[in-house]
Design a protein that fits this description.
Order of helices and strands: HEEEHEEEHEEH
Helix content: 25-40%
Largest sheet: 4 strands, mixed
Strand content: 25-35%
Structural class: alpha+beta
Number of helices: 4
Strand order of the largest sheet: 1-2-3-7
Distance between the termini: 71 Å
Shape: elongated
Number of strands: 8
Mean pLDDT: 77
Low-confidence stretches: 159-173
Length: 190
């Protein structure tokens, strides 16, 4: 007993012709969509964190986004304006370099999903969490003693319209998690 009602015989050549016509139709649809600038596959995007200098001379952590080999867009993430640590040679430039390297390292390891407030050696810190609600899995930077961590969060979460990105340096820490992808979408392009 066959599953071919009416005993219709199909030759392999007919299957190949039908398959070829289907592929040609799909290729034509893709070509039309591309003509209008519509792609079905999202181009690969890479993000690189670097320490640079803003247009006004401030050491700044930038996220450089490159899509499909295009010229990178630099987005300001943190402007290092605090003199916290200057007395021991920990200048804003040095903090910028170290924290930018940590951002990149955690990103490379797949750990940079969320930013949250943490504690290390009884000091408030900004750290990374791999999952929402998860613990700190890596230190980004230590806050100056007496800095309100909530202020840092408010700056990170601000819409940045007409405002600079986070200015580190401004302790009632609450469990708030900042989605790094959303943060980077809002960061201003320089």
């Amino acid at each position: 007993m066959t599953n071919n009602p009416g005993n219709i015989k199909v030759k392999p050549i007919q299957i190949l012709v039908a398959l070829g016509a289907t592929i040609s139709a799909l290729a034509a649809i893709v070509a039309i969509l591309q003509f209008f600038g519509i792609t079905l596959i999202k181009p690969p995007q890479t993000i690189t964190f670097i320490c640079g200098v803003s247009h006004d001379g401030v050491p700044t952590t930038f996220a450089q986004e490159t899509t499909n080999g295009d010229i990178p867009k630099s987005k300001s993430v943190i402007r290092w304006v605090s003199d916290f640590g200057n007395e021991v040679g920990y200048t804003p430039q040095k903090r910028c370099e170290e924290v930018s390297n940590r951002f990149q390292d955690y990103s490379n390891k797949g750990l940079l999903k969320y930013i949250k407030i943490g504690k290390q050696e009884n000091l408030d810190t900004i750290c990374v969490a791999k999952v929402y609600g998860g613990p700190c899995v890596g230190l980004l930077w230590t806050l100056k003693q007496g800095t309100n961590p909530q202020l840092i969060y408010n700056q990170l979460l601000s819409d940045h319209q007409g405002r600079p990105p986070l200015e580190e340096g401004g302790s009632n820490a609450s469990e708030i998690y900042i989605d790094v992808n959303k943060l980077l979408r809002k960061a201003p392009v320089e």
